[in-house]
DUF5606 domain-containing protein (Heminiphilus faecis), 141 residues
Amino acid sequence: MLKTILAIAGKPGLFKLVSQGKNMLIVEALATGKRTPAYAHDKVISLGDIAIYTTEDDVPLGDVLETIKTKNEGKEVDVKSFSDDHELRKYFKEILPGFDEDRVYTNDIKKVFNWYNLLVAAGITDFVEKEEAPAEEQAEE
């Protein structure tokens, strides 16, 4: 699901991929539903391609969002409730204990929480692709 959700540099919010044209994408803002073109020169990245730095391997954004959903029981994160950056980083450490504190900036953490809130508000709560059982196993059942 996250493969079709896009972040576009210079444009606030998240966008859903609607269609592809010649040298452009047609995207729809999750918050407003307004459709706009994203051209080849725009820096567009799929949320499915983003990972968070950790001290071991990088963790896909979908896994992090799934952990946030579990910790908050599917509700939005109130980013403004954190009094300072230290509190925000401490909360993120509860979600992703091994995140690399030198390479993951506070603004990145805020962006992850804001993206999570936008996705939940848009009704998107499946952050990790469900792997289907192989056909042989399904036949045995």
